[in-house]
């Protein structure tokens, strides 16, 4: 791995662990083993390195949404995405950045975060609309609003798990979201009756 990529990977991990504000160039150099001259050759400022790391974190997040955008039964894809193994006690690499005041206050650093969440939201809306079209969810559901709700369940689940240092609340939140989705099936599916 070249030194530029090593710096980006290291900054990505440190920002996930510590946040942007609490990650210094020295931390990155110490963990990566890359010298100061090489670091500043690739990234003149900490902000430049952080932006590259945020883009990397977004690239890590978005392939997972391919489960939502894939082929086959929409509710099966939704369940697979919600229940996919995650490091609940570490939180979301992208969502974590919204808690960092220096990222929130910098439109350039916040842009990749906002873009990633917009893309995930769009994937949720598409799969939810597919589930409605397939008769798996009621037609009167607002898929835009439901997409925001499901994203909030995951992000809030991370917060609860981290606060309690227990992945249980995260797992419960995901399972609860599935329970609510199943309850939002048309009534003939809930009762086993045919229309």
Automatic annotation (TrEMBL):
Keywords: DNA-binding, Transcription, Transcription regulation. InterPro entries: Homeodomain-like_sf, HTH_TetR, Tet_transcr_reg_TetR-rel_C_sf, TetR_C. PROSITE patterns: HTH_TETR_2 (PS50977). Residues 24-43 bind DNA. It comes from the Bacteria. Residues 1-61 form the HTH tetR-type domain. This is TetR family transcriptional regulator.
């Amino acid at each position: 791995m070249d030194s530029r990529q090593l710096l980006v990977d290291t900054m990505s991990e440190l920002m996930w662990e510590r946040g942007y504000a609490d990650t210094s160039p020295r931390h990155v150099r110490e963990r990566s083993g890359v010298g100061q001259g090489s670091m500043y050759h690739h990234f003149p400022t900490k902000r430049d390195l952080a932006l590259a790391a945020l883009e990397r974190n977004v690239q890590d997040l978005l392939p997972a949404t391919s489960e939502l955008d894939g082929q086959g039964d929409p509710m099966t894809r939704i369940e697979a995405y919600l229940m996919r193994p995650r490091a609940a006690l570490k939180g979301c690499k992208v969502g974590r950045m919204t808690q960092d005041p220096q990222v929130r206050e910098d439109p350039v650093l916040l842009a990749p975060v906002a873009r990633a969440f917009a893309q995930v939201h769009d994937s949720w809306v598409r799969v939810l609309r597919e589930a409605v079209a397939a008769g798996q969810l009621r037609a009167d559901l607002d898929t835009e609003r439901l997409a925001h709700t499901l994203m909030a369940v995951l992000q809030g689940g991370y917060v609860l798990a981290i606060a309690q240092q227990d992945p249980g609340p995260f797992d419960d939140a995901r399972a609860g979201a599935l329970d609510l989705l199943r309850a939002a099936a048309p009534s003939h599916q809930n009762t086993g009756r045919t229309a």
